[in-house]
Amino acid sequence: SYELTQPPSVSVSPGQTARITCSGDALPRKDAYWYQQKSGQAPVLVIYEDRKRPSGIPERFSGSSSGTMATLTISGAQVEDEADYYCYSTDISGNHRGVFGGGTTLTVL
Amino acid sequence: EVQLVESGGGVVQPGGSLRLSCVGSGFTFDDYTMHWVRQAPGKGLEWVSRINWDGGGTYYVDSVKGRFTISRDNRKNSLYLQMKSLRTEDTALYFCARESATSEAFDIWGQGTMVTVSS
After folding, report:
1. C-alpha torsion sign, points B88, B89, B90, B93
2. Contact A101/B95, CB-based, under 8 Å?
3. How confident is the model at residue A9 (pLDDT cuts 50, 70, 90)?
4. Helix intervals (H) in chain B
5. Which residues on chain A are in Cβ contact (under 8 Å) with B59?
6. CB A89 within 8 A of CB A4
């Protein structure tokens, strides 16, 4: 089955740039989506279609994709950005199945 | 206000059944593809199932195929997940999520309903 791979954790100091990667064989042909989940809350979409930012999401959140890797970048990370981040995409086989990466815990301290 | 509200979770024995519901409000429900996503305690998100706007296409993760059935009643603005032959590994918080009209993004999520499979 199709898999997306993320690092388990990333740690930065406030104001630094955090980068979270997501690798998957189908990413050259399928869009990546990024979700932020804070403790005890439902996930929130922060990046869609590789690099687009929904309204209401701060400009410090950006996305990119190259080859088999998508990247979520938080420029000038803030303490309130501490959360779990998940990438999501769909299987290229045309079976419309979704898949999430294992998630990355971002620590900002 | 656009929102999704899940219900129907609970404690069930292995091999048992449960039906989850998700009611949408504040938007035209039958304009949207809907999904179920689950999260086991302390674990990551797992996509479970998808249903097209008219119920004409349904899709499942391999681990629930043949045991779970997704359906919808657009007259009631409702999404369902019928779960049978439940296993302990199905224990999770189950979220319903709306797929954006213009991309595959999940733009609206419910708060989830907890399913515990335990003897």
Report:
1. positive
2. no
3. very high
4. none
5. 95-97
6. yes
